[in-house]
Specification:
This protein is of the alpha/beta class. The protein has helices spanning about 40-45, 75-85, 100-110, 135-150, 155-160, 170-180, 185-200, 200-210, 225-235, 250, 255-265; strands at about 10, 15-20, 25-30, 55, 90-95, 115-120, 210-215, 240. An eight-stranded mixed beta sheet has the order 1-2-4-3-5-6-7-8, with helices on both faces. The longest helix has 15 residues, at about 75-85.
């Protein structure tokens, strides 16, 4: 399945990377999570671009960037460091959602262009994650099924009747899932669990010493909000909770998350 780009394709050491830029002002880099794309931030960008230079990137293995290698956070971060250098931006606030939080921290570790961090909807590790049983086996099977049917006309017809749509295109999340590299499932469900057990994200925040905002949804079905709040607060991060929102609060409450990011950026 092909995706139509909404931005530019930058060549970063031979790797084509899909980058969308909006607005002008202090730069913010927005990084989506597993099976996401730049489109996950369409509505959030509307609340930021009036006063900020908003940069969105399709991570490797996702969206219009594609690819099937270099999918781990450190490899992703090396490519993103090249994007920031190519764009010539400094003092960047990097906001990462879910798996994107791992990438944001890895980028801050190697790039002096990162000024501050925002982690959205992500616990420090998987020690209290509540994923469905058998996710590491079932998710690749679901992905294969989505790739088979996402382009079918009847799927789009049915999608119009979904109770809630957080995207302008009601099929956006299915299409993003369909074009995600199959190898990402292992990166997120297997390799990531081991990596975070060894070096949790809260420990990385503490080691970096950069200003850090954490935004959580009170109703996150994957991670207990109170436990996540306590762990990040213990290492000095500013933690905000979006009431009534789940794992992706910027989709459910884009205006509120945009306000939190704007206020944090103004302070740092």
């Amino acid at each position: 399945m092909q995706r139509a780009p909404i931005g530019d394709t930058l060549d970063v050491n031979g790797v084509p990377v899909h980058v969308r830029q909006d607005g002008a002002g202090p730069p913010m880099l927005l990084l989506h999570g597993y099976c996401g794309s730049v489109h996950w931030f369409d509505r959030l960008t509307l609340g930021l671009s009036a006063a900020h230079h908003v940069i969105r990137v399709d991570l490797l293995g996702h969206g219009c960037t594609g690819g099937s290698s270099g999918l781990d956070p450190v490899s992703q971060a090396r490519v993103l460091a090249g994007v920031l250098e190519s764009l010539g931006v400094e003092d960047v606030l990097v906001a990462g959602h879910s798996f994107g939080a791992d990438v944001a921290l890895a980028l801050a570790d190697i790039s002096p262009r990162v000024k501050a961090l925002a982690l959205i909807g992500q616990a420090p590790d998987y020690s209290y994650a509540s994923f469905p049983p058998g996710s590491s086996v079932l998710l690749p099977m679901v992905g294969a099924l989505v790739r088979l049917v996402a382009h079918r006309r009847w799927v789009r017809s049915v999608a119009r009747f979904r109770r809630v749509s957080w995207f302008d295109d009601p099929l956006q999340d299915l299409v993003d899932h369909a074009v995600t590299a199959p190898a990402m499932a292992r990166v997120v469900l297997v390799d990531r669990a081991r990596r975070l057990a060894f070096r949790p994200l809260d420990a990385q925040v503490k080691a970096l010493g950069l200003p850090c905002l954490v935004i959580l949804g009170r109703r996150d079905r994957f991670y207990d909000c109170e436990r996540t709040f306590a762990r990040y607060a213990a290492v000095g991060a500013r933690v905000e909770v979006v009431e009534g929102a789940g794992h992706s609060p910027f989709l459910e409450r884009p205006g509120e998350v945009a306000r939190l990011l704007r206020e944090f950026r103004a302070r740092e």
